[in-house]
Amino acid sequence: MKEIRMDLGDRSYPILLDKGIIGELKNYVTKYEKIILVSNTKVGALYSEKVLDILENTGKNISYFEISDGEEHKSIESAFGIYDFMVENDFDRSSLIISLGGGVITDLGGYVAATYMRGIDFIQIPTSLLSQVDASIGGKVAVNHPKAKNLIGAFYQPKLVLIDVDFLKTLPEKEFKAGMGEIIKHSFLKDDDYYDYLVENAQAVKDLQPEEIIEVIKRSCVIKKNIVEEDEKEKGIRAIVNLGHTYAHALETATEYKGYSHGEAVAKGIIYEILLSQKLGYVEKEFLDRGKIIFDKYEIDCEPVKIEIERLIALMKKDKKNTGGKIKFVLPTGKGTVSVEDVSEDIIREINQEIDNRVIKGVVDIGTNSCRLFISEVEKNENKYSIKRKFRKYLEITKLGEDVNKNGYLLDSAINRTVDVLKNYSEKMASYGVAEKLVCATSATRDSSNREDFIRKVKNESGLEIKCITGDEEASLSFKGASDDIEGELLLIDIGGGSTEFINGSKNDINFMKSFDIGAVRVTEKFFVNDNHCEENIKLAEQWVKSQIKEAKDLSKRDFILVGVAGTVTTNVTVYEKMVDYDPEKVHMYNLTMANVEENIKLYLSKNIEERKKIKGLPPKRAEVIIAGTFILKWIMETLERDEILVSENDILEGMMES
Asked: Is the whole-model pTM more than 0.90?
């Protein structure tokens, strides 16, 4: 077992490192009568029982507290939950907190220890690679503020850091890469030989070979220990451990702590700060290439992403390293050397402008019944886009196309509802730092006589510029979005509010494409007024729909995969599966059968509209049109002589994102 001593006078403590050493914990808790183990749902399910067994065998009074998994739970609300538990169970200054988990838990547990009764003892048991080499060492403890990462915190040292590399056996690949982002950061700070070791032993480290992974963790711990001992409270040299963090924290905050793991963001931040150093003349392009080589060895995406510049600067100004209103960066100046410097906003703007291969993009689909927003990171290559990382999707039922089939124009009330949603979407895109936008309106807008008034109002009130697309363009975008991960010939069906698109072909060759003027809203308004789904109305609707799509009948003879996208088909999956929370991974590539569809129809028809709003898996705002949409789906499957349809999560939003 390796022991690294953090030498801070009366705040000194050991860092124990090896495999299979969790049992050593019992030797460090003997003086405490009350102990609380803090973990999260993911780590707790794997290891809490084992650690609790060790603690309970000491005869102490042991409690366990668990929070949900995720960076968004490193919050003051989570801290208050732990405070409440400790107060209710009479924890005092002689009690002990043990943090079992990754960086979120070690930061949170340490913050609670630092602030409960003005400070009680705590022990760190880091289970992720990131927390083993960074978060658990050095006494920086914190929770996030919604406007900035780690804004609320303290410098407060643990009594022990116990690093058992056996925890890494269950670490997801993404989290391993997050830890490697911080480890690679250390190789830029003080020890150029460390860089060479990481490059030469990359495969062994990735394979978690004990000798190599322990050596890597030890070297990183020693680098951080030496820096902390010299500058415990970050008054000087300790600021260098924030290499990559000015940009990384801005990126994490913009994407609501869900877009990137901390280590992934740091990797991008390091390359960003090398670009700054290159711009300022400190390093040459070869140094930038050297940085990318090591991240590539560990298959870590280190390419910085263009964030809307005003949002980026505003976030960087909130960084805790800043003084006097100036933005500070840790800039690499050579092999194993860095410098903490102020960088002007003009230079930041120049670098942001030069980042043109990665961008945060937002797309909005304004449909007949709903309005949707999708935000992601995309890669640009010769004016072609590919989605690198999906952030968020939002959906609001706006009923823009209400009565447009009868009146020929958009109602003022429908326009106002939609504009309010688009104003909200514009604010969300601004918060995410969206640097490129595409807003498309489909059938309801293009069918209306007052569409220019609507488009102008949206521009004036939300700042968004609408592109009104044709039915063929809509179909093409839907096909582009859905066909990316399906091999072979397919027939894509996109049932919207005012129209339904049919597209037959493969990725590079479309055989048939047509937008039919049938949709869930259109059929509801035409045949099911006042929620009247009597047999006669259903029969009339069936005859009308099938007459509209008779041109597609010949497609039934072709050999294709029938694929459905958008709200009608995805909702039928969630209803059939009785999903309380929407699970995109379960919905994507789901085989929905005719029997499933008919069972759902029977369920819908058995309830009035208010009762339908309570069906598990059915969003209440879809209750009015889901019957028409599902009947359209059934009649399409009958026309095409198919008993099942493959459901894709990817649709026009993905197509727009890649356009």
From this structure: no
